Amino acid sequence: MNNIKVLVIDDSAFSRRTITKMLDETDGVEVVGYAVDGEDGIQKIISLKPDLVTIDLEMPKMDGFTLLRIIKKRFSIPVIVISALSAADKVFKALELGAFDFVAKPKSTASPELLQIREDLQNKVRQVVKLKPEMGSEDLCINNYSRLKSLTSLSPATIRSIKKTDHGFDVVAIGSSTGGPQALQSLFTTFEKQYPFAIVVSQHMPVGFTRAFADRLNRLSKFNVKEAEDGDLVLPGHILIAPGGNNLTFESCDGTIVARVVKPSEYDRFVPSVDVM
After folding, report:
1. Please, are residues 58 and 79 in contact by the beta-carbon 8 Å criterion?
2. Tell me: the pLDDT tens digits for 48-89?
3. Strand ranges for 167-223 from DSSP E
């Protein structure tokens, strides 16, 4: 398989160098160039024809949102947003505009702490490699959505047909990582009403993002969606999102299923952990 070609777009020289170094250390990945803002990014996309683009959202001349709209309209390239932890709402807006996934920077300013994103960034780029690098961000989203549908056995036709109380299951449990936020939004917005089952989700996502993610899904879905808190009940028509930095487990109390939010163990590589859930 040929290396996946990546273009890094960031106005910070420190960030460009650091992200490039992390990607160059990733098997199957080749950084073919960089751009300093959105306008430069468009020119580099045309000339270098990358398979994947990483972008910062806050840039001069043309910001990341405008660039995303242009990439979505004119090109077929998956985009990974690399943005500060304080920009959760902006990140989910970027996902809505077509970004494939995101990686959270520890700080918005240049800092050696940027190296902390190495594993997360490398894992997400590897997933793009696995999900057929010739596919664009929209196709990747559909691919992940199809995987979720097969996991839950809920095609749109099946969802529409669930009208009886003897539907055969009470809880749908979903685990997702790279591409998951976009795929989950696609899945949950197909629900035409609250159906008689609960959904619990472990989406690999850092602290500070899962609440904004749950709030966004709640506005878009017919289900009641919230970031899980210890003691929440698992109820039909409700979706609980495992909180970032913690795991979601459950216990039975007098016939009622109660959510428990627990700290991860030293053996949990990905948190929230679908294995634990």
Report:
1. no
2. 999 999 998 888 888 888 999 999 889 989 999 988 755 677
3. 171-176, 198-203
